C-alpha cells in the first residue's frame, strides 16, 4: 500500500462486484461515484502500475465510503 485515507478498520458492507479500467484521459466523477455506490459504504481499492496515491482523496470526497487505498503494483514480484 502506498496510501490509505479514511477508516483503516474493516466494515461489513453489502457490495456488488464491479470493475472500472481508466487511464490516459480526464477523470470522470460519475464513473467513480458509480463504483462508490457498488462498494456499499465499504472500502475502495485503486490498483496502479505507476504513480502516487493522489486518487485517494479525490475518490474519498466523492461519496460515502469507509476508505480508499492505493496499491502500487510496479514489479513482477509485487504482482505475484
TrEMBL record:
This is Uncharacterized protein. InterPro entries: Class_I_gatase-like. The lineage of its organism: Eukaryota, Metazoa, Spiralia, Gnathifera, Rotifera. It comes from the Eukaryota. It comes from Rotaria socialis.
